[in-house]
Amino acid sequence: MSAVHHITAGFLPLLDSAILVAARERGFAAEEGIELALMRETSWANIRDRVAVGHFDVAHMLAPMPVAANLGLTPVRLSLVAPMSLGLGGNAVTVGNALWAAMAEAGARGIDDPASAGAALRDVVAQRAGRGEERLCFGVVHPHSGHNFELRYWLAACGIVPERDVDITVVPPPLMADALAAGRIDGFCVGEPWNSVAVAGGHGRIVTVKAAIWKNSPEKVLGVRLDWAETHEDRLAALIRALHRAGQWCALPENREDLAGLLAGEAYLNKPSGLLLRALEGRIETGGGIAEIADFFLPAGKAATFPWQSHALWFYSQMVRWGQVPHGADNAEKARTSYRPDIYRRALAPLGVAMPSASMKVEGALSVPTPVGATAGKLVLGPDGFFDGAVFDPATLDAYIGAQAEAVAQEG
């Protein structure tokens, strides 16, 4: 099919841009009549702003960013929708060598045990405070990012008060490993490959991963301006079909080496393909050996690309928790409707894809692979537990937010 639609998409050099890259380079976009141009950016603020002013039609975007935009948390007026997720997982938490040595002495173990790593970090934080030393500083990629919220969630659940006990600052993903090497930060939470880059450079140790903090949790979405989505319904549907097929291709083990080679290209991640391949396989070099991580990054399967509105509401609950926005029924509704499973279902219906019948689920309720109701065929979701055993039921959002507020008050 000859190209009939031109779409420009912004992206950051991260492993979870894989679906967009594969859609362009392996012909899935062209099969849907789309000429897909990919424009690499250096920061999430640039992605947001270039979508806002019309440089990009769509973008590889932080999963909470559409929610934040619709809540008025962006510098310019911007209404966004997330009609598709770009996969699950893919992040990790890395600390510098000196901090790791202190954490190991305090009892930190493997990267699949965030509780022990967090308890060790809590002890180190307390020791430093007792000696009158400055607070540890951690990098995250944006205030409205899964990285910021999962780091804070992990710290708080382990007895570290983020606003009191540590500093959290924003560093663009491609600069994170260099910031650690230069001693500007003590640790960070970022997507791959930037954790592995820090380890390969001898500057850090991966202490835990997103897949251990919250299994099969959301990370990036396809971000689209609302007016563009409404004006170009057919074009967006074709892109979603192309990305769906690309995600399926990315998930096949026999394609991982090819995918790693694509992503390693100068126009994309520009990093060694071997380093990228390990992350695609879920084999993470921590700095202390290879760790096998189940479901480290899922580009397809287990409804990995479905835009769950319960994910949007969990991000909203964290924005409220950390004082970014006040809670109210109107704000909660703006957050929920930032994710658009209706657009996703309409786009993929012609393919007969098994999609969830529901648009929300109880997050943290599944401990084993579980069949769920689907629009067609069979659909099995993966475990989605939080490491501390907590459960988020979007039907009881007020109570969840109230409990968070009570915990914050007790910390104060």
Which descriptors would you attach to this protein?
single chain, 412 residues, alpha/beta, five-stranded mixed β-sheet, globular
What separation lies between the terminal Cα atoms? 62 Å
Overall geometry: globular
Point out poorly predicted stretches: none
User: Gyration radius, to the nearest Å?
Assistant: 20 Å
Helix content: 40-55%
| Number of helical elements | 19
User: How confident is the prediction overall: mean pLDDT?
Assistant: 96
Largest sheet: 5 strands, mixed
Strand order of the largest sheet: 2-1-3-11-4
Structural class, from helix and strand content? Answer: alpha/beta
Strand content: 15-25%
Please give the number of β-strands.
16
Descriptive report:
Keywords: Cell inner membrane, Cell membrane, Membrane, Transport. InterPro entries: NrtA/CpmA_ABC-bd_dom. It is found in: Endomembrane system. This is Nitrate transport protein NrtA. Its main location: membrane. It contains 19 helices and 16 strands. Helix 1 (18-25) packs across helix 13. The longest helix is centred in the middle third of the chain and has 19 residues, at 233-251. The protein has helices at residues 18-25, 28-31, 44-52, 65-70, 97-105, 114-130, 146-157, 162-165, 176-181, 194-200, 210-213, 226-231, 233-251, 256-263, 273-281, 309-321, 329-336, 341-348, 397-411, and strands at 5-11, 34-40, 58-62, 80-85, 88-89, 91-96, 137-140, 167-170, 187-191, 204-209, 220-225, 283-285, 290-292, 297-298, 370-372, 379-381. It is globular and about 65 Å long. The N and C termini lie far apart (62 Å). The strands form 5 sheets. It has a 5-stranded mixed β-sheet with strand order 2-1-3-11-4, sandwiched between helices. Strands 8-7-9-6-10 form a 5-stranded mixed β-sheet. The protein is of the alpha/beta class and 412 residues long. Helices cover 42% and strands 17% of the residues.
